[in-house]
Amino acid sequence: MDEPTMEEKLSSLDMLNDEKLDTKAIPEPAVTVELPRADSLHILLRQALHAEDQALLLDCLYTRDEKVIAKSIALLNPANVVKLLKCLLFMAESRGAVLVCALPWIRILLCQQASSIMSQESSIRILNSLYQLIDSRISTFGSALQLSSCLDHLFPRIADEADDGGADQPIIYENSDSEESEDAMETDEGSEGLSDVTDAHGSDLSDVMSDEDGGH
Asked: Can you tell me the mean pLDDT for 37-41?
């Protein structure tokens, strides 16, 4: 029975190593988060408007890519355009992250679907409310800017005063025992002086009384 030669054994080992490398080189499918495309976002947006689902609509508004927003808005019919404008007005009345997400959608919607919005009578009231909201926000911007400027001037002064007040002050140590001993000495001296005065007055009074008795 013929045994494999050394060369054949080495060749077989090389083949096994190549197969192991090939199996290790195959990457495992990674879990990737797919960004919303214009077509998928349009479907989600239409579903949210039809079902009046605020949570789903908010998920759509988290998209900040203006190209995706513009393509999604372009695929809406006039009825959904007005619905979206009404929902955006409601979200613009709030503050924080919701307002930040709603602003680019409002701008692109008004610029891209202006003719479709103006052709519907129901949109006039929404546009009027949106105008009043924007005007009220702008009117408070000036006072807020002045307040911000005042705070910018005050904070450095407060910080400087805090730094000056935090300088090391000399510490004066007073020994309470020495003060108490001094007070005790003063008290003793005062009592001795008072006893001397009392004794003097007592002797004078006794002398006067003895003189009076002798006179009688």
From this structure: 70
User: Which residue did the predictor score with more confidence, 42 or 39?
Assistant: 42
Structure tokens at 4: 């494999």
- How far apart are the C-alpha atoms of 105 and 92, rounded to whole Å? 11
The whole model's pTM is what?
A: 0.51
Question: How would DSSP label each residue in 77-98?
Answer: -HHHHHHHHHHHHHHHTS-THH
CA distances from 66 to 114, 188, 200 (A): 17, 94, 109
Percentage of the chain modeled with pLDDT above 90: 14
DSSP single-letter state for residue 120: S
Each residue's pLDDT tens digit, 111-121: 999 888 888 88
pLDDT at 176: 54
From 106, 101, 110, select the one nearest 64 (Cα to Cα): 101
pLDDT, residue 72, reads 92
Cβ atoms 34, 68 nearer than 8 A: no
Q: Name the more confident of 53 and 209.
A: 53
Residue of 136, 138, 117 lying closest to 126 (CA atoms): 117
Q: Which residues contact 88 (CB under 8 A, 6 or more apart)?
A: 102, 105, 106, 109
| Alpha-carbon span 160 to 201, nearest angstrom | 68
Amino acid identity, position 167: A
Residue of 43, 153, 62, 137 whose CA lies nearest to 92 = 137
- State phi, psi for 210 to the nearest 5 degrees: -65, -35
- Domain parsing of the chain, residue ranges: 38-142
